[in-house]
Amino acid sequence: METLPTKLLIRLIDILSYPLTFLDYLRKHKTVRSIVILTILVTAIIGHYFGWNGILTALMLVGRLAFVIVFIVIQFVAMFMFLARGSESEHYPGEKGEVTFEKDYYGNVNEIKIIKHWTHLLTADRHKLKEMGAKTISGILMSGPPGVGKTMAARCLATASGAAFFALSASSISAMFIGIPQLKIKRLVSKARSAAKQYIASIIFFDELDALGASRGMVEDGSHRSAVDWYRALTPIDRLRVNLDVHPMVMGAGMGGGGLGALSTLLTEMDGVQKLPRRDEIQNSIRKWLGLPEIYQGVVLFMGATNRPAVLDPALVRPGRFDRTIKFSNPDASTRRALFRGYISKIKCDKNIDIETLVDVTAGVSHAFIASALETDSPRLALFDGRGTVTQRDILQAIEERVVGIPNPITDLDPEQKRQIAFHESGHAILAIKLRPEKRIANVSIIRRGSGVLGYVRDVERKETFAMPLSRVSANIMVSLAGHEAVYLEFKEHWTGGSQDFQHVAGYMKFLRDHGEFGAIPINDRNTLMWKRIDEREDQYMQNAIQGTRTVLQENWKAVTALAEALIEKEELLADEIYAIVNRSGYVQ
Q: How many helical (H) and strand (E) elements, i.e. helices and strands, does the chain have?
């Protein structure tokens, strides 16, 4: 513990460092030094010839001019300082945090464990790291789709890190005046460096980092290159979804100034954040000479979150900057289970909530999706129904609203058209049950939704899928064709309403073609003979798929009819109801 004389000595060193820093500045800057020397010589000459009155007169003239200049400068500085104020939030150790990992964050266990470990090195284990001669990391990038818990993780980290925490949305850095974004970044980093001295470490978090750190090559050809890199990085499942360009969980829905300067400033600040200021160097020299401990600068860690990592400038993600990437993904089954348990505990629910069913029907959704469905939509549905507790059906209905929109039924729908929609969706459902046992039907509906669909079948994966055999794509083609063909078998003619299904089929066919299913991988666009063979095999493949779809429908026509009649009566069926109807109708396994 420092004694009083030691504290007074440290304070004296701090005061002396100001003039010493100024003298050091004059030593290094010849122009400023020359101006100071010239001013002293001019003052001496005026004093020699005109005495003290001359000096006072000259000082008054210079003072008036200096007052005008300083007044103008102060106005500009005040205006720029006001405009440079960012909308950042600050959190210091000892303050009560709004959210914590223990009470408010569910899932992403491995990702959070890594973040906690790295930030722990900045605080509790900093001495061990220094003894090993190692350096702390400078930046952590959290990437992943929207709504998967990146920003929430940062908010919880502010409470748990034990370091000063500064959060800023990168999109709020932009301004209409040149220079303001740079000032905002410099001001934020300066505050973080000051806090790091006091609290050992500080963290700067940039949300939506791509708004600030987009590649500077984008103005030339970076956008094309980034898109290619992004597509190549996708898994086969995600590439298939991109080819379809539709929501992966719904089928049958066809029934109805200054950014570059700011980035450069951020890169410069990241490189120089650990550099010791000259005034601190002078103080440390005196402290070392007197045998006092040197000033500890603390550590500043940069963190960023983005859902578009491919567009970030390479200079921003090189080693030494944002060189550690933690990828957040949509929650897997265990994470969804934790999410449902956590959010259900916060609202007043019925005791008979089946969490496993909820986990099964929400494969592929985000953390924010589940949070909003439970905290916002399901209580609203319960209150609209005159109840004070949330039931299983409320939650399932809230999930459906989030996936395909709010129900908007057609009051006077023509019975024949309603029957056509019912058979269309029934055809999809029966083929899905028959050909895609790895999936589970969650819902079948012929109620018009806010998204514009008149009917849909929604199925979900029974287990997480990261790769799949091409035979599943073939099954998807037949399931997509089943609605159109079921209507033909019932009404003896084709109806409209299958356009979106045909887009699905086109996407699946392209996927198969790109994987060489039709004899060759089409990498040579100029090989007309190869493309002719591929086209011929595709045509034959489609004919077989259509005939195969009709055959399966005819074999299970009792199940198709039973499900369609139930849809006409109830308009919407959940999983248990669907499988019960199908099993009672003589469905062929």
A: 23, 10
Give the model confidence (pLDDT) of 248-304 as tens digits. Answer: 344 544 343 445 678 888 888 888 776 777 777 787 788 788 877 777 777 888 999
One domain for residues 248 and 339: no
Q: Determine contact, residues 279/21, Cβ cutoff 8 Å.
A: yes
3-state secondary structure 14-54: HHHHHHHHHHHHHHHCHHHHHHHHHHHHHHHHHHHHHHHHH
3-class SS of residue 428: helix
Same domain, residue pair 233 and 341: no
d(CA 86, CA 84): 6
Q: Which of 352-366, 412-426, 519-533 has the lowest mean pLDDT?
A: 519-533
Among residues 292, 327, 362, which one ends one of the domains?
327
One domain, residues 448 and 387: no
Closest CA relative to residue 10, chosen from 299, 329, 373, 288: 288
* DSSP single-letter state for residue 256: -
Same-domain pairing of 140 and 262: yes
Mean pLDDT of 76-93: 70
Against a cut of 0.85, is the pTM above it?
Answer: no
CB 105 within 8 A of CB 367: no
* DSSP codes of every residue in 498-543: -HHHHHHHHHHHHHHHHTTTTSS----TT-HHHHHHHHHHHHHHHH
Residue that is last in its domain, among 22, 45, 79: 79
- Structurally, how many domains does the chain consist of? 4
pLDDT at 42 over 50: yes
From 301, 269, 42, select the one nearest 162 (Cα to Cα). Answer: 301
Higher pLDDT, 143 or 253: 143
Helix H or strand E encompassing 251:
strand 250-251
How far from the centroid of its chain's Cα atoms is residue 502's Cα? 32
The residue segments making up the domain with residue 485 are 415-584
Q: Report the C-alpha gap between 525 and 405 in whole angstroms.
A: 41
Q: What confidence tier does 81 reach under pLDDT thresholds 50, 70, 90?
A: low
**Rounded Cα–Cα distance for residues 561 and 567 (Å):** 10
Model pLDDT, residue 558: 93
**Contacting residues for 424 by C-beta, under 8 A, at least 6 apart:** 252, 255, 455, 483, 484, 486, 487, 495, 497, 498
Q: Does some domain include residue 239?
A: yes
The one-character DSSP state at 455 is -
Same domain flag for 312 and 172? yes
Q: Is residue 449 part of a domain?
A: yes
Three-state SS annotation for 133-171: CCCCCCEEEEECCCCCCHHHHHHHHHHHCCCEEEEEEHH
Higher confidence at residue 95 or residue 579?
A: 579
